[in-house]
Amino acid sequence: MGGRAASGNGSQAAGGGAVRAPRLERGRSALGPALELVHTGRAPTRAVLTAELGVTRATAGAVAAELEALGLIRIDAKPSAASGSQGRPSHRLSVAEDGPVALAAQVHADGYRVALVGLGGQIVATTPGCEIIDPDPAHVLRSVVEAGTRLLGASGRRCVGAGLAVPSAVAEPDGAALNPLHLAWPVGAPVRRIFADCVHEAGLDVPAFAANDVNLAALAEHRHGAGRGARDLLCVATGHRGVGGALVIDGRLHTGSSGLALEVGHLTVNPEGRPCHCGSRGCLDVEADPNAFLAEAGRAPGPEGSLLQQARDLLHDAADDPGVRAATEVLVDRLGLGLAGLVNILNPDRIILGGLHRFLLEAAPERLRAVVADRSLWGRSGGVPILACTLDHNGLVGAAELAWQPALDDPLRALAVR
């Protein structure tokens, strides 16, 4: 997984009691895999858990009981069989609705949002979107963490960790944001360290993480949304400004040698187009984002609401306007050219689109798919499914996945009280 860097050992931060010693020794190594199976919905029953883990029924039962004792999952007391199924009924498994949470935050060009996210990618509580951004990352992230601690205090939940999504490539292993230009933050700002410092200053003794927002959206969608079941998943999204991409291969983010892979925003799709901050012209970053859509439609950005909200509202509320229809076709064609190039290079088995791209797909699905098929070798050989992201706030859910990962790796260690 990209964008992970622990800043401390997980411990109790809000609510919950002491974690007792495990009742099983054999099978302890199966606790993490078992929790991930329930977390991602791939083990809805104890019978499925037994088969997926490749252990005995007794061991799977002990593993599930231990996860329940840790307050992470719930086991249905009465076994049930699916309609039409044969064989012994099995106990249903689900994540604990009152269990621990991760503090998740997403910062973007028009503000930030904070949430508490439980297992299963379930958003427990969220703040209203804040539309104030400061050029000092420490000032912004301190406000983010303060908002998160207020949510935690109101919920009474235990916190397992904190995750941050930012609209920038985040270098590994130091956690520096290399191109946070849409935030007006300094190039190379050490966002992971700053975020961890703010978390600890707020009295939360939990690990803190930070990564690129589209990487985290792709991770969330792969585990809980439109990307579930894909082997090679390509995600392309435009948020409030700019365009980002991410690739999940065999369940893991492909982040490259230093966390900088899939900077798809700098694919050229219009050689005579707008100048890009990278020094080139006509990059996807400036030709297929909300600002570009408003410009193509002949609309100036208004003072109210984010650019993303303004573009989405225009697409929905004025779809029959000739200028809006023309702008939709132009951006769909540019996006399709970029996707076709990526399909030729990456050969994904599924593409998911987020942000404004999700709404462009819904507005002109056949046109977008035709452009990709016509301009890509693999598209002509059968086509690549192109789907809309399905999770609301997938960047926040992905940020929470970072924070949950230590518990998914080793629940006993991550939840131990020190």
Automatic annotation (TrEMBL):
Pfam family, one: ROK
Highest taxon of the lineage: Bacteria
SUPFAM superfamilies: Actin-like ATPase domain (SSF53067)
Annotated spans, Disordered: 1-22
Ranges annotated as biased composition (Low complexity): 1-12
PANTHER family in UniProt: BIFUNCTIONAL UDP-N-ACETYLGLUCOSAMINE 2-EPIMERASE_N-ACETYLMANNOSAMINE KINASE, ROK (REPRESSOR, ORF, KINASE) FAMILY
Family: Belongs to the ROK (NagC/XylR) family.
Protein name per Swiss-Prot or TrEMBL: ROK family protein
